[in-house]
Amino acid sequence: MTDARILAQTMLGNEPYGLLIGEGWRPATGGGRFTVTNPATGDHLAEVADADASDVQAAIDAAATALPSWSIVPAPARAAILRRAAGLMLEEQERLATVMTLEQGKPLAEARGEIAYAASFLTWFAGEAERIYGMTIPASIANKRLLVLRQPVGVCAMITPWNFPSAMITRKLGPALAAGCTAVIKPAEQTPLSALELGRILRQAGLPDGVCNIVTCQDPIPFSTTIFDDERVRKVSFTGSTEVGKLLIQQSAATVKRLSLELGGNAPFIVFADADLDAAVSGALASKFRNAGQTCVCANRIFVQRSIYEAFAERFTVRVAAMQVGNGLDPATVIGPLIDQQARTKVERHVADALAGGASILTGGSAATPETQFWTPTVLAHATPTMLVAREETFGPVAPLIGFDDEAEVLGYANATPFGLAAYCYTRDLSRAWRMAEGLEYGIVGINDAIPSTAQAPFGGFKQSGLGREGGPSGIDEYLEEKYVSMVL
């Protein structure tokens, strides 16, 4: 059966491939469409509307029109819609996961996990909607009353990536809707179907017209230009590369928009000699090879203390060599495809640079087949901090092993980067765990924990890894303004 036929069966007759603007689905104004393909097979999946600037403007208009009525909906009513949407996502978990695997490539088991993770943000922020508290402040004058109100920022634009096409939307949209904001979303052109499916579910859950608008397009420039030029868009949330994030900061200056930026990473994974070796190996596997290494928080540099380097490398390599590469719909698949040819080219460049610099391949090291986007999971021994695999974010299934001698040395290596999103440390020494947790210049630190992300904790980076936090109690703050009211009696 072709991918397109599997998708058609999965969609159960629904065809939400237009733009979601205002009252419902519509074609692009200019009639444009673009093709979505399966990165595992190259097969045509579907065509979606290709928006232009006029469509983006229409979406902003719809969001601005919906804002006054949505912002005054009582918090419990907003929360109820979010909870219904989360429940519908879990009811349709298999269907949504299949759509995701077809357009993104990740193994079906990982896609199921992402749907559950995505739904958890709607559930968490439903609760946060009911906990948006203001405050009273003791006044210094008897006839004054000082208050702080917390109100929605307004219309928000969201630009989301292809590697987590559902969760990166709900992590932004959940707090926005909970706060009473309205939204215009541009999903990645590689993975628009998951976003459109989420739009369908939100409408089914009872979200009013215009509160969430989804605009699919191949060219991001008209979208970004339009949202930054429009004064009514008060906040932009973006997940993607640091290079693009810097451009968005520049664009935001003219209208002084609030920004949330989750940008690139270069995560160190540090294994000390006193670590539980089996736990460290399993943690490195989970962190490095999830989604074929295409995550912003995956282990990019694996530092192993020299006294256990050989033992770690041996156990790790055996486990990596056993990973099956293939189509994500195959239950046996552990490593799916890279998203596109550009991603594969970067992996090839990083491996070639490491080999030229003296690294050696313990397993993998090549494309699974010459004509596809599959790359065999790779372990590189004798890597160094100066190699591309240690200086740049590889975003692929390549694990460089770097030896170190002591705590001070590895902390210096780990922090010697302009990025600071996630870091990992395996040790059974409680004092060292505290020192590393405090000394690592990263927004997220996993101590003996390779998968720390969760809806109820803040997610975000230091340095050039971004601005602001998503998730956790502080996640909704990004979508609220504080208004001070001083009242004379």
Automatic annotation (TrEMBL):
Keywords attached to this entry: Oxidoreductase
One BP term from GO: gamma-aminobutyric acid catabolic process
GO molecular function, one term: succinate-semialdehyde dehydrogenase (NAD+) activity
Segments traversing the membrane: none
Residues of the active site: E262
Annotated Pfam families: Aldedh
Aldehyde dehydrogenase domain segment(s): 25-485
Family stated for the protein in its record: Belongs to the aldehyde dehydrogenase family.
Matching PANTHER family: SUCCINATE-SEMIALDEHYDE DEHYDROGENASE, MITOCHONDRIAL
Name the record gives this protein: Succinate-semialdehyde dehydrogenase (NADP(+))
Organism: Candidatus Chloroploca asiatica
